Amino acid sequence: MTRILVVDDEPTVRRAFEALLSVRGYEVVTTGDAEEAIHRLESDDCDLVVLDICLPLMSGLDALARIKQLRPVVPVIVMTGRGTTDTAIEATKRGAFEYQLKPFEPREMLDTITKALEAARLMKGRVDLGPETTEPAGEAIVGRSLVMQQVYKAIGRVAQTDVTVLIRGETGTGKELVARAIYQHSQRSHLPMTVVNCAALPETLLESELFGSERGAFTGAVARRIGKFEQAHGGTMFLDEIGDMSLATQAKVLRLLQERSFERLGSNETIQVDVRVLCATNRDLEKAITEGAFREDLYHRLNVVTIPIPPLRERREDIPGLIDYFLGRSARTLGVKKPPLADQALQLLQDYSWPGNVRELEHLMQQLVIFTGGYTIQASDLPAAVQGRAEGGSTERAPMIEDQEDQWLALIRQYLTTSSGGAAHQDLLDRIEKLLITEALRQSGGNQTRAARLLGLARPTLHAKMQKYGLMSGS
Ligand SMILES: Nc1ncnc2c1ncn2[C@@H]1O[C@H](COP(=O)(O)OP(=O)(O)OP(=O)(O)O)[C@@H](O)[C@H]1O
Ligand SMILES: [Mg+2]
How many angstroms is it from 176 CA to the middle of ligand 2? Predict the structure, then answer.
């Protein structure tokens, strides 16, 4: 159970936290005394500390320093009242995860708590590496394929160094997992890893999130803000989705990597930091460079050590091991028996294209454990998309179309530039429908009943469409 320690000298605030957090399934421990909080942390672990820094007996910043010394990786959210933000800002500089001004909205506080716990999860959950970990205690990177062994070797080679690492791969291939493994095996694992998702924030906000900003630096900058790079000093920064960063922010990141220094937005003061940078992207950076969306110099700076993670369809030998791992894990969490898998079902799973890669496989295994309730997983329990491919694509085509969306788009673009407008929409759909029906009839040897089933259409509907397109036999 997730345990949160709340330190506040006002009993009403402590009670409010107890009510707010315990209904959400957190274990809450409260105290009004910083000494006691520190004493507790010496013997017990907790996942998060919420600390009021206006305490009567000990300076809040001293309390923070001692908590950080004892539990450097546990996030601390500081609270401050009386309209003064200076101490709060100082606290974030000294490693507090975030600050909240009192009085606060419960929603806002909960949001911050959720974010802090997610950050804690990424740092804490141990990631084991590779082939022999069939029943690992925590999480593991599973897969014995040659390409995955290269990944493990690369992690081993770079983890102990301070070199910048770029992790590349399609969505769901395990980039974040690899970043966490590198962090946990690094010399900086005793200090936090700060994660920023560059795709989640608009341009100015991202820049301010990373580098900080002075009051009034942009519309909405109401107070000085300490950036994540400054907070991460001494530790590790994971820049996720780095391919989605604006050119201006890219320039700042480049300078940070080269000189280890930057300025807050709206400030001339140069700040030096010592941060190890890991980053990940599923974008085609080479293409982004030719399109002028990604800086070539930054690319070369990042590309010193690249760990490519191949899509699952290019390492199908890993599929049985992953299935076994996820079935076992889901069964354990749900407290049910791990279901056996019929040979035919395994074959279908192994033949499927997995456009969502390992994440898609993980989710499917969770669903199967729930739905089959411990009974053998049969081929018929699998989603149509997984069954369809092995049946020669007869029932479900969506994943294949998703795979080739780019090509479809190219055709559509070409069509729109050449069509004379007017009925373009209907005209294109008609053409595609005609091709679809022609092909279905071909595959079913001209048998309309079979073609209708293949298309999921009623027979009279198919008949009408065949007439419309002049596809009746003899025409
Ligand atoms: N080799 C693996 N062994 C075990 N679990 C894996 C493996 N690869 C990925 N996973 C799991 O699959 C899920 C997706 O992985 P992760 O979030 O690391 O992917 P990602 O590449 O960062 O995806 P995205 O580009 O969508 O952010 C996670 O739950 C992760 O634990
Ligand atoms: Mg990711």
Answer: 5
